[in-house]
User: Fold this.
Amino acid sequence: MLYYGTFSSGLQKAVSRLAAESGVSIVLELDGALMFETASEPFLPCFANVFAVLHYERHSAGTDGKTALAALMKASSVKPRAYGLSGGAITADTGKITDTLTAFRVSASVGNSLISADNNIKTRLERHIANVTGLTPDREGGGREFLFLYRNEGLLFILRRLTPRAAREKTPRKGELRPELAFTLNYMSKPAPGDTVLDPFCGHGAIPAARLKYFPCKAVFASDADARLAKTAESSIKSLAPSVTAVECRRAAVGETPFYLPARSVDKIVTDPPWGLYDGSTDIDALYARFAGLCVYLLKPGGVAVILTKRESPMDARLAAQIKNGLLPLETYDILVSGKKARTHVVKLT
Assistant:
């Protein structure tokens, strides 16, 4: 079966590597999405959403997306089974969507923007899907979803959503990373079971929580300058820790001297420092300078840091300034986080 998984734009290299390691056969590698085949679990933790591919076709990159999408919807409303809207394809349950979801909607999207569709065509599609599945059409979007998608590469898809539309266990709080991105950042650190891991800007604890949930390790240290956030992180991550993993969460600022961990004590640093978007009083340049120096101080030789920041931020220069001290760049990813331009640095201490 073909699947379509979405993730943050710009992470194709890392996600494709993870998918291949997970036994997935990649059919198409796209910006922010993979189309793939697998005989096993398709819900890799790096995906924000997963869809079953009912139909796809290629057009030239210059095709008008709205026109092409309208034609596909019209054709599939006339001959739905010829476009993958047959009984087995649209009723197969993967376990992610529960039986309590008894409604569905038909939606259309060009790129990342939902568009309106011809009402008569939409009604025919709804009638067919309702007859096959026994589900009830709900245009407000309270249940399952059948998505007609045009991508700017000239690709047209008919997709059946397999993950809940919220695509997360809860709505992230201000400044909190989505769980699939927190997972991918940990994966990019090349996690090993013997790692001692640090997140010195832990916020609500999304990054250490993902490490504990998905990647065995020896110890996890999480800290934040905000005592309230550190307490919140502690409550969210300690329950995830297996008995063989030490977990400590505390209030601590990166600029405090000495830091609460000794030199050369950390294998991996995975973190999302403040971007300066919510607190204009923070001197971001000075904060990043202290943090880059802390990486050199704390990392063991061969240790890796994965750092998410705003794109074109002072972090670029501050990390570059530590090259003379052995902090070398491995990879850089320019990505989008909630529509904001971001950059992920992967660096290693030699």
